Amino acid sequence: MLDDKKLTKELINSLSSVTNLKDLELIEIKYLGRNGVINDLLKKIKEIPVGDRKEYGKKINQLKQEIKRLLETKRLELSKKKSDKFFDSTLPGKTYPKGSLHPITYTIEKIASIFQKIGFIRVSYPEVEWEYFAFEVLNMPKDHPARDDFETFFIDAPSDKKMGKVVLTPHTSSGQVREMRRVKTPPIRMVNIVKCYRPNWDITHNPMFYQFEGLCIDRSINIAHLKGTIDYFAKEFFGEDRKIRLRPFHFQFTEPSFEIDVSCGVCGGKGVDCHVCKSGWLELAGAGMVHPEVLRAGGIDPNKYSGWAFGFGPDRCLMMKTGIDNIRILYNGDVRFLEQF
Amino acid sequence: MNIKITHNWLLEYLDTDATPYEIQKYLSLCGPSIESVTKIGNDFVYDIEVISNRIDYASLIGIAREAATILPMFGKKAKLKKDYLTYDRGIDNNSHLKLEIIDPENLCPRKLAIIMDVEIGDSPKYIKERLENCGIRSLNNLIDTTNYVMLEVGYPAHVFDYDRVKTGKIFIRKAKKGEKITTLDKKNYLLNSNDIIFDDGTGRIIDLPGIMGLDNSVVTEKTKKIIFWIETNDPKAIRRTSMRLGIRTAAASMNEKNPDSEVAKMTFLKGIELYKKIANGKIVSPLYDTAPEPEKQKMLSMKYEIFDKLIGVKIERDKINNILRNLGFEIASSSFDKFRTPRNDKQQSLSVKIPSYRKYDISIPEDLVEEVARIYGYHKLPNNLPPPANVQQPQELEKLFTITSKIKYFLKHLGLTETVNYSMISKELIEELNLNIRDHLRLANTISNEIEYMRISLLPSLYKNLKDNTGRKDIMRFFEISKVYYPKKNDLPNEVYKLGIGVNTDYFDLKGIVEVLYKELNIESDLKEKIINKDIFYLVELDLDFLIKNYQMIAPYKQINPYAVIKLDKTFTISPHITYEVIRQKAFLSKLLQKMDMVSLYENKLTLRFYYSSPNRNITEEEAKTELDRVIH
What we know:
CATH topology of the largest domain in chain B: Phenylalanyl-tRNA Synthetase, Chain B, domain 3
Number of helices of chain A: 11
Strand content of chain B: 15-25%
Shape of chain B: elongated
CATH superfamily of the largest domain in chain A: Bira Bifunctional Protein, Domain 2
Oligomer: heterodimer
Structural class of chain B: alpha+beta
Strand order of the largest sheet of chain B: 6-9-12-13-14
CATH architecture of the largest domain in chain B: 3-Layer(bba) Sandwich
Radius of gyration of chain A: 35 Å
Shape of chain A: elongated
Distance between the termini of chain B: 81 Å
Number of strands of chain B: 30
Number of helices of chain B: 19
Order of helices and strands of chain A: HHHHHEEHEHEEHEEEHEHH
Largest sheet of chain B: 5 strands, mixed
Structural class of chain A: alpha+beta
Strand content of chain A: 15-25%
CATH class of the largest domain in chain B: Alpha Beta
CATH architecture of the largest domain in chain A: 2-Layer Sandwich
Helix content of chain B: 25-40%
Largest interface: A-B, 87 and 94 residues
CATH class of the largest domain in chain A: Alpha Beta
Radius of gyration of chain B: 38 Å
Number of domains of chain A: 2
Largest sheet of chain A: 7 strands, mixed
Number of strands of chain A: 9
Distance between the termini of chain A: 65 Å
CATH topology of the largest domain in chain A: BirA Bifunctional Protein, domain 2
């Protein structure tokens, strides 16, 4: 009754010889017009036995969709047909929007993913913090120089008897004891990447900067684990050829304490006449074994557990990796800087 | 703080075959960090970082002591010369002058003083050169001596002109608020009642001890008699005064780190000796030393296994003992005996006497672990990753980070520029955006008006970004995702993440960005954020928490409709009564309306396209038209 295959074949045949839109339009009218093939077929529905009409209608509908598809394909083909005019394929492509993210965003993302791979979870702790968490529990007594007006921003707010004054956290270490209390029983594998603040605004300091804290607490965690982790990070972040070294240092909340250097990428660690590094090495982080007093403050028994912590500046990592040489440009919102990334 | 010393000077105390660069390399790995070595003439200058708990090595002797322990670990010969602390203890008999030292509140626990006849002049060439190479200006033999012995032995020293002190009295007291001083560099300062000063007994202030000498009592070219002086200080008081007045001398930097009073004495004796040598110094008074009762030597006991546990490798017990001995610790007892294996390794313990110069920084077993580990060499330890552990990230944080990242990349791909601004902003900026200053947390000690208040909105910063960049770029679309800080009474503020967007294009550009972001996050909700117009800019702020809560990872599935869709266009005349939104609401009263698009807007003529269809059957054009006619004309 309805030879749809034949009709489709006929259509394909006639389309193959069409070379312009006008001819295409004629064919469209022939098939889909008021008195076109499809409408003709629809009119014939009365001649179909009642029981078969549903099936017949469905078939016509499918045919109509197929005809439309073929016509549309031909139309696109015709419209894209090259003209005889000179085609300059060297012209630039169409412009698409490409915005930018702040380079610190990529840096933080990369750092977090490097640590995620070895089972460290990313957390986030307050930027506006009690002195208690920023200093007290980190074994930094009231008269410690870091707690004075020249090293820490204080909020103009009443202080709390137990928690002390409200400060802008000068380091991510404030999150250490918070994480210990959240987890309660080790293992702890944490990275905390947040904004920190210090009253220092000059060529080499911004009053706001990012800091990145790693904390690992478990049974029998030792210095070799810290070395291994930092070495893994340096190679993942800066490159396989980089080396690290630990130098003795002092922090109130770690014992032993170290500064960690990474070999310079510019001179390859040679340090001879290098304009970037001091003697082949660049300071990367401060680190150490968590002080027993800090573990105790976090409710963790230092006789059972030990751990390490490190903190460093993603801002600095970013600058070391990219060669951005002006720290002030990071947060002053200059679009000529921002849109590069 | 950093100090500079020279290689040749160091060799007066240290016998070694290590080159300056070897010394730099090895000391940096195991002890004091030597930031640079500079060759000057036939000498080398070391620039050394002194970490805050190790003021004991802020001197030639201190560095020599470290070097003598560290260098042999690298196969280098290094020994302290036997005579490294010799000084002439002999006091001349000619002591006819007296000094009265009064310290009723015991503000300076130890006072060392002596009066000497001297001849002022230039220092010998080697002293001049060494001081200059170490970054200290050579002035004359009287001043140079104090600096020279400070660098050599490690305690800041001072010299007064005896005649200019006038009374022969040194009265130590707290300043009165408002008292004025003129320091030796002729700068004036106003004191307060926390500052500690010396007074000559008449009320005249003659020194700001531990920080800087005063103009009215320092030596001059006419000086014939001096008081050579060292006192120990309260380190907190030194830091407070020096920071407040902004006088950051080497003396202040050292004194605020609480150097050892035994070192004060050594420095003092070394100074007397040097005055005799280079200023023809003659002692004309008794030697005053008001030392408090000597402290009992501190002891520390610990189990050896703590070394193994924290260092990660087992270091031989006798090696541990040797390292500690070389650093000046005395092994009081050690249950380890290298000729016999103790039955229980865990019971082996150690007890040491702490040298005076380390008494403040060594107090717990972990401190000794550090001493042993660093000298043994961190570089010799293996690189191990911590044992694997399964730690669950709180779900809300996981969501926060993943969705934030999704939003950032989506906006970037739309062509927006991410900015990161300071969390603190100025009063002017707050007021410019019509926010209330009183709703903000204020910094009590800001260093600039630009950063005085904690943001409660990202919009002031974005507005500033747009304004600052005007002229640099034609089309600007900025966004920032950051925390804002809502004050809470007697508690920390509520820290809430916001997404702020600011554009210099137009209202609908910004609205479109927010709409498509909703679509991207599969948020099925009407926009609730208000777009603000300020100057030529448009700004909007979204609650990140709302976006996260309403985010759907995968859009809800809808069955594909197999039936025909009737498209109809219609033009409306819009007015305050007939807005797009009014039309939209009316139109969607129809159950057959699937979608509505805007086609064009010309003046107040709004053309819309309506898509009618039923999920159950084919509808006719007539049906669709009837539906459309129900919408206002």
